[in-house]
Design goal:
The protein has helices at residues 3-19, 22-29, 33-40, 48-56, 61-66, 74-89, 95-112, 114-136. With 137 residues, the chain is an all-alpha fold. The protein has 2 domains: 3-66, 434 Repressor (Amino-terminal Domain) (Orthogonal Bundle), CATH 1.10.260; 74-136, no CATH class.
Protein backbone atom coordinates (compact mmCIF):
# COMPACT_ATOMS: atom_id res chain seq x y z
CA UNK A 1 0.00 0.00 0.00
CA UNK A 2 1.39 3.43 -0.89
CA UNK A 3 1.68 6.41 1.43
CA UNK A 4 -1.26 8.32 -0.12
CA UNK A 5 -3.55 5.36 0.42
CA UNK A 6 -2.44 4.96 4.04
CA UNK A 7 -3.15 8.66 4.64
CA UNK A 8 -6.53 8.27 2.92
CA UNK A 9 -7.40 5.28 5.12
CA UNK A 10 -6.53 7.16 8.31
CA UNK A 11 -8.47 10.22 7.09
CA UNK A 12 -11.54 8.07 6.45
CA UNK A 13 -11.15 6.49 9.89
CA UNK A 14 -11.00 9.91 11.60
CA UNK A 15 -13.96 11.25 9.61
CA UNK A 16 -16.14 8.26 10.44
CA UNK A 17 -15.10 8.36 14.08
CA UNK A 18 -15.90 12.06 14.53
CA UNK A 19 -18.71 12.65 12.04
CA UNK A 20 -20.24 9.25 11.29
CA UNK A 21 -20.24 9.76 7.54
CA UNK A 22 -18.42 11.56 4.78
CA UNK A 23 -21.62 13.43 4.00
CA UNK A 24 -21.82 14.90 7.53
CA UNK A 25 -18.13 15.77 7.42
CA UNK A 26 -18.58 17.48 4.04
CA UNK A 27 -21.36 19.61 5.49
CA UNK A 28 -19.21 20.50 8.52
CA UNK A 29 -16.37 21.82 6.36
CA UNK A 30 -18.63 23.42 3.75
CA UNK A 31 -17.35 21.33 0.84
CA UNK A 32 -18.94 18.76 -1.47
CA UNK A 33 -18.62 15.02 -1.00
CA UNK A 34 -16.76 14.88 -4.31
CA UNK A 35 -14.15 17.28 -2.93
CA UNK A 36 -13.67 15.10 0.16
CA UNK A 37 -13.64 11.86 -1.87
CA UNK A 38 -10.49 13.02 -3.68
CA UNK A 39 -8.67 12.82 -0.33
CA UNK A 40 -10.49 9.82 1.13
CA UNK A 41 -9.86 7.72 -1.99
CA UNK A 42 -6.13 8.45 -2.00
CA UNK A 43 -6.06 10.44 -5.25
CA UNK A 44 -4.54 13.41 -3.39
CA UNK A 45 -2.92 13.74 0.02
CA UNK A 46 -4.07 16.73 2.09
CA UNK A 47 -1.94 19.81 1.44
CA UNK A 48 -1.38 22.68 3.90
CA UNK A 49 -4.80 24.30 3.33
CA UNK A 50 -6.67 21.01 3.70
CA UNK A 51 -4.64 20.07 6.79
CA UNK A 52 -5.54 23.43 8.35
CA UNK A 53 -9.22 22.79 7.56
CA UNK A 54 -9.01 19.29 9.09
CA UNK A 55 -7.40 20.72 12.22
CA UNK A 56 -10.12 23.41 12.50
CA UNK A 57 -12.87 20.77 12.54
CA UNK A 58 -11.15 18.71 15.21
CA UNK A 59 -9.44 15.91 13.30
CA UNK A 60 -6.07 14.58 14.46
CA UNK A 61 -3.89 15.79 11.58
CA UNK A 62 -0.60 14.33 12.91
CA UNK A 63 -2.26 10.91 13.07
CA UNK A 64 -3.76 11.26 9.59
CA UNK A 65 -0.44 12.27 8.05
CA UNK A 66 1.97 10.03 10.00
CA UNK A 67 0.00 7.32 11.76
CA UNK A 68 1.07 8.62 15.17
CA UNK A 69 -1.45 10.26 17.47
CA UNK A 70 -0.89 13.92 18.26
CA UNK A 71 -0.49 14.75 21.92
CA UNK A 72 -3.10 16.97 23.49
CA UNK A 73 -2.35 19.18 26.47
CA UNK A 74 -3.08 17.42 29.79
CA UNK A 75 -6.20 19.35 30.84
CA UNK A 76 -7.67 19.23 27.35
CA UNK A 77 -7.01 15.49 27.17
CA UNK A 78 -8.88 14.96 30.47
CA UNK A 79 -11.82 17.03 29.23
CA UNK A 80 -11.98 15.10 25.97
CA UNK A 81 -11.93 11.81 27.86
CA UNK A 82 -14.75 13.00 30.13
CA UNK A 83 -16.78 14.12 27.12
CA UNK A 84 -16.26 10.75 25.42
CA UNK A 85 -17.41 8.93 28.58
CA UNK A 86 -20.53 11.09 28.78
CA UNK A 87 -21.28 10.56 25.10
CA UNK A 88 -20.97 6.80 25.56
CA UNK A 89 -23.25 6.87 28.62
CA UNK A 90 -25.88 8.79 26.66
CA UNK A 91 -25.58 6.54 23.60
CA UNK A 92 -24.11 9.26 21.38
CA UNK A 93 -21.94 7.61 18.74
CA UNK A 94 -20.19 10.55 17.07
CA UNK A 95 -19.84 14.32 16.88
CA UNK A 96 -22.56 14.68 14.24
CA UNK A 97 -25.11 13.01 16.50
CA UNK A 98 -23.99 15.19 19.42
CA UNK A 99 -24.41 18.28 17.24
CA UNK A 100 -27.94 17.20 16.26
CA UNK A 101 -28.89 16.65 19.89
CA UNK A 102 -27.46 20.00 20.94
CA UNK A 103 -29.34 21.75 18.12
CA UNK A 104 -32.54 20.01 19.21
CA UNK A 105 -31.96 21.03 22.85
CA UNK A 106 -31.31 24.61 21.79
CA UNK A 107 -34.57 24.67 19.82
CA UNK A 108 -36.44 23.29 22.84
CA UNK A 109 -34.95 25.95 25.09
CA UNK A 110 -36.12 28.68 22.72
CA UNK A 111 -39.59 27.14 22.41
CA UNK A 112 -40.17 26.50 26.14
CA UNK A 113 -38.32 29.46 27.54
CA UNK A 114 -35.12 29.30 29.58
CA UNK A 115 -36.70 28.72 33.01
CA UNK A 116 -38.96 25.86 31.94
CA UNK A 117 -36.11 24.26 30.02
CA UNK A 118 -33.75 24.48 33.03
CA UNK A 119 -36.39 22.85 35.22
CA UNK A 120 -36.84 19.99 32.75
CA UNK A 121 -33.07 19.47 32.50
CA UNK A 122 -32.71 19.42 36.31
CA UNK A 123 -35.50 16.85 36.56
CA UNK A 124 -33.85 14.67 33.92
CA UNK A 125 -30.49 14.86 35.71
CA UNK A 126 -32.13 13.88 39.00
CA UNK A 127 -33.90 10.97 37.28
CA UNK A 128 -30.60 9.76 35.84
CA UNK A 129 -28.90 10.00 39.24
CA UNK A 130 -31.71 8.03 40.88
CA UNK A 131 -31.52 5.35 38.21
CA UNK A 132 -27.75 5.11 38.64
CA UNK A 133 -28.13 4.88 42.43
CA UNK A 134 -30.77 2.14 42.13
CA UNK A 135 -28.59 0.14 39.77
CA UNK A 136 -25.81 0.06 42.38
CA UNK A 137 -28.03 -1.61 45.01
Amino acid sequence: MNEKQEIADRLREEILLRYGSIKEFSKAIGKTQQFVNVYVSGINAPGPKMRRLLREVGLDVPYIMTGRRGEEPGDEKKELKAIRVLMTEKGIKNAAELRRRLDRDEALARMLGPEVYKTIVKAAVMRDKRAKYRSRK
